[in-house]
Structures are given as C-alpha cells and as structure tokens.
Design brief:
It comes from Ornithinibacillus hominis. Helix content is 29%, strand content 37%. The chain is α/β, with parallel strands linked by helices and 249 residues long. The strands form 2 sheets. An 8-stranded mixed sheet has the order 3-2-1-4-5-12-10-11.
Amino acid sequence: MAYQLMASLYDQFMEDAPYDQWVKYTKTIIDKFGLKTPNVLDLGCGTGEITVQLAEEYSITGVDYSADMLTVADQKASNHNQQIQLVHQDLRELEGLYHFDLAISYCDVINYMTTMEDVQKVFNNVYHSLNEHGLFVFDFHSVRHVEEDLVGNSFSDVKEDSAYIWTCYPGDEEGEMFHELTFFTSEGDLYTRFDEAHHQKTYSVEVYRRLLKNAGFEILAVHGDFSIETDFSEKESDRIFIIAQKRTR
C-alpha cells in the first residue's frame, strides 16, 4: 500500500477514472443536505484530483498515507493557486483534525482497511473529526464486484513511455483480494521496472452499517454507482456509497 514510485504514474493510468462523477456526487450531497460553506475533509485524497476540484468552491483538507501522493497533490494545488492543507496520516490513527462539516473518502479507500477492527477505528476517528450532525460519505466495492469482476483477472495498459500489468488474486475470505502491480517506465532506450503489492477487503452493507452505528453515526442513505436518486443493489452495483450523519452518543 506504499504508492511510492507509483505516485509519479498514478494520474497517467487513472486518467479515465470518474473524478467528475465523484465531484458532482459530493456537490449534490452538499446541496441536498443544506451544507452552507462546508469545511470538507478528504480522507485518502491521493494525488488530490478530487481535492483540487472541490477546493474551487469549498474549504478542504486532504489526508493520505502516502507522502509521495501528497507531493503530487501539493504541486496540483500550487498549479491552481490554491492553499490546501495536506496532512500525512494513517486514517486508523487520525488525530488533530476537528470541526469538519463533511468527510469524504472515495475511490475505495475504505477497502484498504482489511479488518473490521481497522474499519471501526477509521469510523471512530471520522466521528471525532466532524462537527455535530456532520456528514460522512464514502464508497466501497460491492462483494459481488470483487468476486465476479476483479479477483482472478489481470488488467494492463500501455502508454507512450510507460506500461503496467495488474493482477488481482483472491484472499482467504470473501471480498478479500491482493493486487500485484508491475510498472515499466522508459529512460531513454531502457525501461525501468518496479512492483507494488496492495491488499483490500470489502464487506457487506450490513457490516458497514453496524460499524457506523457503533461509532455513533446514523445512516441517511445508501446508493449504487454514483446514483443519488435510486437505491443500491449489492447484486448489481459495482461501487456502493453510504451517507452517514454524526449523532450524539
């Protein structure tokens, strides 16, 4: 989960990621729940693609486990003449971040919490970071998507001066997967290879509901695949979104 050398190539291989949909979804939630000039916390912000777009309208702080990804995010913010607070922290040990109206965590960041204990730690930390009645919005892979579309498959992409091969292996438990990624980057007539390994685990909606309730959240809505108008389906949705609100314990 280091994202070290990968950070320099991440945006190149993620250029088709639905960042605009995540941004639109967030703005829709802000409008729907009447958040006025919200202070936003972006958990697992990566290279800051979503963070920078939201910073055009809102005060936002980005947090990520990878210092290399944050370096890229900082450069993007500078290119956009934005002052964005970027924090290098593990979400399981989040501290010193308080008084936020909205916390978001997208692109299956929560799936990197591979035990229920770790998920619970993150939810507890987010609870303490939010103002009273603050919102927490996150997404995760559905179990069906992991089992049917990801594990046991390989993916690849070739650019002008770089390429990657991504193989997804099943874990011992349902919803668990291990990613092995191999990257090649050109340096003149030579190519440099580097490898990364990632571990993810997803749970059913009911598990996330229970852990959120334990942390002090009330579930306001569950959506599938960026649709805020329709309910989710664990049998059909690839990516599931949960909107939760902080309540007094």
